[in-house]
Design a protein that fits this description.
This protein is 47% helix and 17% strand. The chain has five helices and four strands, in the order E-H-E-H-E-E-H-H-H.
Length: 155
């Protein structure tokens, strides 16, 4: 899996990037996603994610993670035809400010929180959602299963 990282905050060190790369690659393998698939992960501050949240979700406040899936077919869209097209799953945007706040709030490491948010965003790109109780249970259960199997538990 190819992951293109962009850190607008200059606060995400190489060890966090490496861990997220390994975690998302592990999750992709477990979800049977081709190794040629591509995503981008963008680290921003609360101000930037609030702008994105307001513009795309009409919610004018910061959030922790937003995903933009590119492989979803919207109503009325035409399916792309072609076998040699790369599988570009989409973009994940993570607020580093919110990750730090939540790591403190949940009393775990920033590494665990960044991994949790990256994986949460990745699962959204794969079609997992939490719009209703059943879907939320499925997504959160799969998320926890992958985090634990990877070795990124809550401790």
């Amino acid at each position: 899996m190819h992951i293109d990282f962009h850190d607008q905050t200059n606060e995400v060190n190489e060890s966090y990037i490496d861990m997220i790369q390994r975690l998302i690659s592990f999750a992709a393998q477990q979800e049977k996603i081709t190794e040629e698939a591509e995503i981008s992960i963008n680290f921003v501050d609360n101000r930037e994610i609030q702008i994105i949240n307001r513009n795309y979700r009409q919610i004018d406040r910061p959030t922790d993670v937003i995903s933009f899936a590119l492989e979803e077919e919207g109503e009325g869209e035409v399916k792309i035809i072609g076998e040699d097209m790369p599988l570009i799953l989409g973009d994940i945007v993570i607020s580093v400010d919110m990750a730090k706040e939540q790591a403190d709030e949940y009393n775990h490491s920033l590494e665990r929180e960044l991994g949790f948010l990256a994986l949460h965003g990745f699962l959204h790109l794969l079609g997992y959602d939490h719009m209703n109780d059943a879907d939320e249970k499925t997504m959160l259960s799969r998320q926890e299963e992958l985090l634990n199997a990877f070795g990124l538990s809550r401790e």
